[in-house]
Design a protein that fits this description.
The complex is a heterodimer. Chain A is α/β, with parallel strands linked by helices. Chain A contains eight helices and 13 strands. Classes of the chains: A alpha/beta, B alpha+beta.
Chain lengths: 241, 306
């Protein structure tokens, strides 16, 4: 029996037809049911009509841009998972993506296989009808609290002194718990750059976080190393509004 | 102040002196020597005062001109930077969508069955598409570098240079090129420098990477650092083809490729990034080069305040 929920329904929103016509069949082969919208207004109509499982939303579009669509949905209490297609390297846009309640974001031009991986992990993480961790103001994992409004990290009621990059890195890891994240992806999403040897910068910041969190490398409470692949936030993360 | 004003002011002690001289000659004054001394004192005092006032006025005028000039220069620079930033932003936006479509198309093709020569053609297109994507990212980095805030913190430059050397030697195409790293230990190691570690890493990585590209296999690249007053000086020296004198000022420009650099892979952004990073750290960078001998890049960075 093939139920409808076996193939997740993805709505792909981009004003550039050359992108959607190529991306749609690729995503279909990856096992998704795809529908396409060419601008923000169309996207809103399709979301309310067909209730997709996830929306891949371009930021820069004529008429109503991706940011407005996202805000409109979240204000109406619609927590359909959304992956934003952002501009390369714009730090302000990355911060905006998470603050406005996107579940994840990926920089154009991206590797289409990476998009498939992101869609799968967002769908796995999604809590139906509830805001994603990316949209809550306080992330709590055991004795560790991340206050996103003040950009502060508190462990055992004490604020930790961390470099800004380490704070951003921890934020990304905690909003993507139990997900294996490669160094390259951390570099691209947290640093916004993908320079070839920079992955060592990731390791340096992870080491800083571990020291501050007093996390043991062999039996980690928070950050786990997956040899040769990347990092994973091992603690259970609760969101508080 | 006009010239005749000066004349008028200077004439005050002269007139006073002349009046006193006449009074003195006519014998109207009871103690002539006393008046002469008092008069000379007044004259010199007044002249001194005038001199100081004149100096002050001149300095004020110079200061106003200078600060005007500086304000204009910085405004012009800020405008140029923001214009360039806008241009790169537009370029980025206009290029990223076609590139995205190409990558999606290639991924789409990969799912269909292809004959092997076709597959080769597709692979080569994919490689070039990735190259274009990287160039785009580099341009964006450069634009962002000019405006993004930098995280300034004490950086252990010895450890950083060690890491740069290790990364470079681990490169798959390093062949037998060797990096000789010289760091002072006696009487004390290098002090910390103040900067953004990630950017400084990128800076030295780019320089060493360049040196590797232009050096024959089997040759050695020297990476050395020393302390000089409140600065740390780092040098990257290679035995490559060198840069002709006429090209020396041009190599820092984005997308410039020197004559000896043709055929060597690269985006033409590396040194522009180096310059931008050094500028953001208020440091200095210069190069010495001899054609056929090699090139030395010198970077001076401020040490962190203790």
């Amino acid at each position: 029996m093939v139920g409808q929920d076996v193939s997740p329904h993805i709505l792909l929103v981009d004003d550039e037809a050359a992108i959607t016509t190529n991306l749609a069949p690729f995503l279909e082969r990856a096992g998704f049911v795809i529908s396409v919208a060419g601008d923000g207004t169309q996207a809103l109509q399709q979301i309310s009509r067909s209730k997709p499982d996830l929306v891949v939303l371009d930021v820069l579009m004529p008429k109503m841009d991706g940011r407005q669509v996202l805000r409109h949905l979240r204000q109406a209490g619609d927590w359909t998972p959304i992956i934003l297609l952002t501009q390369v390297g714009e730090a302000s846009e990355r911060a905006m993506a998470l603050e406005e309640g996107a579940d994840d974001y990926i920089n154009k031009p991206f590797d289409p296989r990476e998009l498939v991986a992101r869609i799968r992990s967002v769908l796995r993480r999604a809590r139906p009808g509830q805001p994603p961790l990316a949209a809550v103001w306080r992330l709590v994992s055991g004795k560790l609290t991340f206050d996103r409004r003040a950009h502060r990290v508190i462990l055992n009621d004490k604020e930790l002194a961390l470099t800004p990059k380490a704070v951003d890195l921890l934020e990304y890891l905690m909003t993507h718990p139990d997900e294996l994240i490669s160094r390259e992806r951390l570099l691209e999403t947290v640093w916004g750059w993908d320079y070839p040897v920079g992955t060592r910068s990731v390791d340096t910041r992870i080491a800083e976080l571990r020291r501050a969190l007093k996390d043991d490398v062999t039996t980690p409470t928070y950050i786990e190393t997956v040899a040769g692949e990347g990092y994973r936030f091992a603690g259970k993360v609760e969101g508080q509004a | 102040m006009k010239h005749w004003h000066w004349g008028l002011l200077i004439s005050i002690p002269a007139v006073a002196g002349a009046t006193l001289a006449v009074a003195f000659w006519r014998g109207w004054l009871p103690n002539a020597i006393f008046y002469l001394r008092a008069d000379l004192g007044t004259a010199f005092g007044l002249l001194g005062l005038l001199f100081v006032v004149g100096l002050g006025i001149e300095w004020g005028r110079w200061y106003r001109r200078e600060s005007n000039r500086r304000a204009i220069a910085s405004k012009v620079k800020a405008e140029a930077t923001s214009e360039r930033h806008e241009f790169l932003g537009r370029l980025d936006h206009e290029l990223k969508n076609p590139l995205m479509a190409m990558r999606a198309g290639l991924a789409n093709l990969a799912g269909t069955t292809l004959e092997s020569p076709q597959q080769e053609i597709i692979n080569s297109i994919e490689t070039q598409t990735l190259r274009l994507s990287r160039l785009l990212t580099d341009l964006r980095k450069l634009a962002e570098l000019e405006i993004r805030p930098i995280d300034c913190a004490p950086v252990d430059i010895s450890e950083l240079l060690q890491e740069v050397a290790t990364v470079a030697e681990e490169r798959p195409d390093a062949d037998s090129r060797h990096i000789a790293l010289t760091l002072p230990q006696a009487p004390w190691p290098l002090p910390m420098v103040s900067g953004d570690r990630d950017l400084l890493f990128l800076l030295f990585h780019n320089l060493v990477d360049n040196a590797m590209k232009f050096t024959q296999p089997g040759h050695t690249i020297e990476l050395r650092a020393f302390e000089d007053g409140s600065k740390v000086v780092v040098e990257v020296a290679d035995t490559g083809p060198g840069i002709p004198d006429v090209e020396v000022p041009l190599v820092w420009e984005e997308l410039y490729r020197g004559e000896n650099a043709r055929g060597v892979p690269g985006s033409g952004i590396g040194l522009a990034l180096v310059r931008a990073i050094v500028e953001r750290h208020n440091g200095e960078v210069f190069l010495r080069s001899r054609v056929g001998k090699g090139t030395v890049f010198t970077i001076r960075l401020s040490t962190a305040q203790k």
